[in-house]
Amino acid sequence: MTEYRKGQRVKVQFEGVIIKGSEASNYVTVGQLDGQFGLPHGDRVTVHCEMVTRLEPENWPPQVGDVWTANGLEWFARQHLAGGIAAMVPEDGAPAWDVSQFKHLGPVLVRRRGQ
């Protein structure tokens, strides 16, 4: 089962944002993203996870100095010696993740360097 978290951008025949995650079920609650669609029952709808496609995280890709959250941890973008992002490093000291693998965790940007 794919796990979704509040704040992740998804597509369900429209673009929306996760309001309530899928920790214990196969359903998620999706809400409007910038008022782009009208729902018949207010501003959110609950759908089966099979109908949901994860979009690229907002502010993707990571930049050196970024702090992101995923799986309950903060992650830091580490620069490769040749330039660019080599890996995302979790705050708990666990092994670093390749950026493409990290993307599948549904990360959310906490702060961008210089902002």
Give short descriptive properties of this protein.
1 helix, five-stranded antiparallel sheet, 115 residues
Characterise this structure:
The protein has 115 residues and is mainly beta. It folds into two domains: 9-54, no CATH class; 67-111, no CATH class. It has one helix at 99-103, and strands spanning 9-11, 15-20, 27-32, 44-48, 53-54, 67-70, 73-79, 85-90, 108-111. The strands form two sheets. Strands 4-3-2-1-5 form a five-stranded antiparallel β-sheet, with no helix packed on it. Strands 8-7-6-9 form a four-stranded antiparallel β-sheet, with no helix packed on it.
Sequence-ordered SSE layout with sheet pairings:
Blueprint: E1 9-11, E2 15-20, E3 27-32, E4 44-48, E5 53-54, E6 67-70, E7 73-79, E8 85-90, H1 99-103, E9 108-111
Structural class: mainly beta
User: Can you list the strand order of the major beta sheet?
Assistant: 4-3-2-1-5
How far is the first residue's CA from the last residue's CA?
36 Å
Task: Give the strand tally.
Answer: 9
Shape: elongated
Considering DSSP H and I runs of 4 or more, what fraction of the residues is helical? under 10%
Number of domains: 2
**Chain-averaged pLDDT:** 76
Could you name the ranges where pLDDT drops below 50 across 5 or more consecutive residues? Answer: none
Strand content: 35-45%
Instruction: State the order of secondary-structure elements, H for helix, E for strand.
Output: EEEEEEEEHE
What is the subunit arrangement here?
single chain
Q: What is the rounded Rg?
A: 16 Å
Instruction: Tell me the major beta sheet.
Output: 5 strands, antiparallel
